[in-house]
Specification:
Length: 93
């Protein structure tokens, strides 16, 4: 099943400058593995060694944070949209 994945600008160099790609899988973890097979090195930027998303990377399934669902085990279905959003920090103290 095809799922649209939105890629943030800092990772677009790994996806041939594509801001949206298609990945397949039954869960978010499966999507990450499929993305890695298409775009070598992308999973290391998104996930820790154990496969969980890095704490500074926010993953949304249809605009809902997967941290409040089932994390990387969250099920996906045809037509879903996943957004990968790096956290932004900074500002004046």
């Amino acid at each position: 099943m095809a799922v649209k994945v939105r890629i943030p600008s800092p990772l677009m160099k790994l996806t041939n400058n594509q801001s949206e790609v298609t990945a397949e899988g039954a869960t978010i973890a499966d999507l990450f593995n499929n993305l890695e097979s298409q775009f070598a090195g992308i999973k290391d930027r998104i996930c820790e060694e154990n496969g969980t998303p890095r704490r500074f990377i926010n993953i949304y399934l249809n605009e809902e944070d997967i941290r409040f669902l089932e994390g990387e085990n969250t099920a996906v279905k045809e037509g879903d949209e996943v957004s990968i959003i790096p956290a932004i920090a900074g500002g004046l103290v």
